[in-house]
Amino acid sequence: MEPGDTARPGSRRVVGALPPRLLPLPLMLLLLGWGLRAGAAASSSGASAEDSSAMEELATEKEAEESHRQDSVSLLTFILLLTLTILTIWLFKHRRVRFLHETGLAMIYGLIVGVILRYGTPATSGHDKSLSCSQEDRAFSTLLVNVSGKFFEYTLKGEISPGKINNVEQNDMLRKVTFDPEVFFNILLPPIIFHAGYSLKKRHFFRNLGSILAYAFLGTAVSCFIIGNLMYGVVKLMKIVGQLSDKFYYTDCLFFGAIISATDPVTVLAIFNELHADVDLYALLFGESVLNDAVAIVLSSSIVAYQPAGLNTHTFDAAAFFKSVGIFLGIFSGSFTMGAVTGVVTALVTKFTKLHCFPLLETALFFLMSWSTFLLAEACGFTGVVAVLFCGITQAHYTYNNLSVESRSRTKQLFEVLHFLAENFIFSYMGLALFTFQKHVFSPIFIIGAFVAIFLGRAAHIYPLSFFLNLGRRHKIGWNFQHMMMFSGLRGAMAFALAIRDTASYARQMMFTTTLLIVFFTVWIVGGGTTPMLSWLNIRVGVDPDQDPPPNNDSFQVLQGDGPDPTGGSRTKQESAWIFRLWYSFDHNYLKPILTHSGPPLTTTLPAWCGLLARCLTSPQVYDNQEPLREDDSDFILTEGDLTLTYGDSTVTANGSSGSHTASMSLEGSRRIKSSSEEVLDRDLGMGDQKVSSRGTPLVFPLQENA
Amino acid sequence: MRRQLMAGKDGDRFQHQGAVELLVFNFLLILTILTIWLFKNHRFRFLHETGGAMVYGLIMGLILRYATAPTDTESGTVYDCGPLSFSPSTLLVNITDQVYEYKYKREISQHNISPHQGNAILEKMTFDPEIFFNVLLPPIIFHAGYSLKKRHFFQNLGSILTYAFLGTAISCIIIGLIMYGFVKAMVSADQLKNGDFHFTDCLFFGSLMSATDPVTVLAIFHELHVDPDLYTLLFGESVLNDAVAIVLTYSISIYSPKENPNAFDTAAFFQSVGNFLGIFAGSFAMGSAYAVVTALLTKFTKLCEFPMLETGLFFLLSWSAFLSAEAAGLTGIVAVLFCGVTQAHYTYNNLSPDSKMRTKQLFEFMNFLAENVIFCYMGLALFTFQNHIFNAVFILGAFLAIVVARACNIYPLSFLLNLGRKQKVPWNFQHMMMFSGLRGAIAFALAIRNTESQPKQMMFTTTLLLVFFTVWVFGGGTTPMLTWLQIRVGVDLDEYVKEDPSSHQEANKLDKNMTKTESARLFQMWYGFDHKYLKPILTHSGPPLTATLPAWCGPLSRLLTSPQAYAEHLKEDDVECIVNQDELAMNYQEPSPSAGRPPTKLSLDKKASPQTPSKENLYEGDLGLGSYELKLEQTPGQSQMD
């Protein structure tokens, strides 16, 4: 472990950088050599430790140091994997190779390293001793042990089921690269989910909100039940054949159904993004997958919480069932409220302080508030990941408008990088876990059954729901869209994280293995087949979101009062449900003005009797907008941006042409006409669209935004 | 079943507590941010954000200490295990048929046990000290390295290195000696048991106390645009200082003579010195190796088409430098520091403009958060840490010692440096440097790393108090001190330039002489080597290697030179053109500030530039970028606006 020695992998990589296909091997061998030596050092220090107690203490110290070193090595392994992935992905993107997404690649590299770690490192036995101490009656988080006059502090790491004690004493290196599953939930998933919420394409998302909610809630429930029932059948079959060696209850099947219902079509979405596939399809798929995750998490935790009262714990019990449903609703709404509330608080803070003079402080506040959401929800017993999702949506909807231009790009880029790293980390860990996880239970019948089940579950979810939705939608979901959605039922990070969370029982281990294989299969095969599928299904690509909404412009003009367009009116009515329209107008008339600098001034939208309150809540900039004399240049730019967003929204809001709304809009419109002409307005709209598009394509050169 | 449920609940509570604890920190940071905004908005400069974070931490610590009831008293019960003769790293405990896995954390000495039986919340609020070294400090240090003002830094490199290496060693020894005197006095005054406090302990204290961290002062300098030379001297010193202090502390702590721990042992001493040099050189090599790899990767791949991938790669490789140094038994933080310096010097030039912004902002943000977390934690630790030993004599002695040591470090060294420097370090600068000997995050992190024995606990308490005092009093007194010492403020780097724009052309020859007198031959050689070989190899800028390398390695040089270096005129790519345009524009302002002493090569090229514009421009463009970066740093808000 000389410095020169460690520098070598680096230089090796430089040479290998030109043909990246060749480079992993020497690098990994070196890494492996490292691990071996570290392991050998640990074991040799351990061997000498048997002599005297003084020597042993020294050995323990050394061992702690050694373990820190090994921690570093294992993290380094992952980081080098990610580096490799980035370089290869660059090559693929450069050559426009689309059949393998970065996540798929990360998994492949993970697999390779997993194989090396599994079969290349010797099994070193730890010095674990099982002893029986009679004093304790429950487990404490810290344990002070008196060993011949010296006191040692031990911290609780986890509970081990009796069957696995032998496994604990296995390969040290494999144990090092196995993370605590809670890491996924507490560190890696939140940025991914937050980024998803933060980058929901707002306009298209809200336009399809009804359908998305239907797919996410009803669809997930349907898919969960169908998969659960099918799997129960498979399990029964396995029992008959004699393949099952342990218990497998109906609730376990349902649990499996819940975790495997979390779709995660990153691969497909990335390709859509790159090819500019139809925006509506994109919004449907993306919205569904994002909300889907939230539903699946809460669903799986409420299934776990299903505890019938009687002796037989796995029969149907109405009370327990309703309690589970109650838990589902409670957790979901609690997390939702928590996320929305912190989003609103952030919006208010950024609105009423002039924090935007200091983008760094603003970004930090934004980040901390969003993280607080997660922690707060966890501390209150809700689901942090769900709270973070809704916090992200709220932040994007309100707070984003209050941020300074620089903070906008900073927050976006920050979460983009975090999301990218976390996602690829999870996928490479998946590859690694196939070999390093030591309790796999491969059961061919179960795996095949699961494949059939997810296929059927997806079909039973998309086609009937699309049929029902088409009854109500003006803009029908075409057959090719339905097929594409059916096809994009990839499983990813969320299913994996849910499955790895609990791998104590036999049933859960089998589920974990199956989930892993399903993820591999779907990401590689289904993800790789996206481009052929798109052309086969004749889905139009190369749709620029800017060009998309000529019909929208019509309805926009309706709003401007250029003459009521009856077809437009009826269309909007059919498209969005009444409740959504109500929400739109409420949002536009009250929430937006209260929480952001945009929207009509509250003094005009609120009734007269709360004039005082309205005056104090409306930001001065809104009034300023109405006065032509504005000196501050940057302010002008900012408000311009805000206006854009307002108008961008109002294209959506256009659908709900309620009375007060039109009034306020026309008021604004007249004010605009005073200062500028309709063209400005159109240009504004264009700018809004551009913003949306740049959010969708993260690799767009962001300076264009300001140009 | 029921028991499992209980255990599950226990785990749940465990996790919720973790969430609550983090939430407290989040909340404190949010408060700090809002307060700081208020202060900044009103141009109130007495309290820096780090000071504010400490105040809030203190308040929260007070509340936690006195408002929460001791809850979990049982957790501290000591168990005797007869069959165990040594302490294994993993302990499997069988509690009524349920096996739990426990992980070895540390050894606790006898007298520390009782506090462990105290308040569970206080216990929870105490981080593992390794977190500072593995999570919080690396971004701070990397950011410091990454944002070293390159031009002024290299201009003053000799002085900075002297202050950092010699100065830290002097300060360490002087503090150690003074403290040893105080300890002896305390022993004779019966305040301390004899034999507790060795000379090595005193030296240890001296080395950890030598890590200065004038964030507060530097922030004010930055805001007021104080003389860049003073800024660079202070900043460079504090950054390198940290690295030296960390390695020094480590080598003192492993100094273990064979027989008598108090006696001087030559072999052990030289082993320690060898350790110091080995670790320092190893970490330096590791850090720069990773940075060089990054530079080569970004140069030879067209990764700049995808700024996100580029940023990701940059981040990951910089992190790898830390991890591999740790894995190899070196000091990760030092590696990260040099990695940052090298990245700024080479890789930065290869990044796309978008990535430049992104990496800067990313590390700035991480630095901000990590720094405030540490200072918050310091405030909190004053009340939540349960093994404080307040010893008035020791604290007073330490205070005296750091003042004396700082004086012994700055004044003699400045005198010596002034003998060699063309641009003298004036008296008011020296006083200011003397005054800016604040202690901060590094000293705290080094002190909290080991709080097992009584001397170490006493040191920890003293360090904490010194940090408080210096940050609040010295930090708050910076603005008055600046006016009192009549140090000019409001020096804009660009204006600084315009003072003597015309004199530049004639100054070329003068420059040559000046450079010679001012920077030692060694540095000059380095400049030449860097400019002629390293820059062209690692970045897109500089003269093409084919021109600088001897003819016999022609193929190699052609391979390594990036096409951009010669194919200047036949450039179609639009984006690239803009970038270069940018470089060029910046460029013209550049030579004049360094009129003081640009490297000889530069001035020659400047003369020739009108005739052969393209190549020369590019060549200067590289230095110009440096100044562009400076501006970026100063006004992060503006640069994006336009």
TrEMBL record, chain B:
Keyword Membrane: yes
Top-rank taxon: Eukaryota
Keyword tags: Antiport, Cell membrane, Endosome, Ion transport, Membrane, Sodium, Sodium transport, Transmembrane, Transmembrane helix, Transport
Record-annotated membrane-spanning stretches: 20-39, 46-67, 131-148, 160-183, 233-256, 276-300, 312-345, 365-385, 392-417, 460-485
Annotated Cation/H+ exchanger transmembrane domain residues: 31-484
Keyword presence, Cell division: no
GO CC terms, sorted: early endosome; early phagosome; phagocytic vesicle membrane; plasma membrane; recycling endosome membrane
Family annotation (Pfam families): Na_H_Exchanger
Cellular compartment(s): Cell membrane; Recycling endosome membrane
GO MF assignments: potassium:proton antiporter activity; sodium:proton antiporter activity
Membrane topology, record value: Multi-pass membrane protein
PANTHER family, A to Z: SODIUM/HYDROGEN EXCHANGER (PTHR10110), SODIUM_HYDROGEN EXCHANGER 9 (PTHR10110:SF61)
Protein known as: Sodium/hydrogen exchanger
Protein's organism: Jaculus jaculus (Lesser Egyptian jerboa)
Lineage start: Eukaryota, Metazoa, Chordata, Craniata, Vertebrata
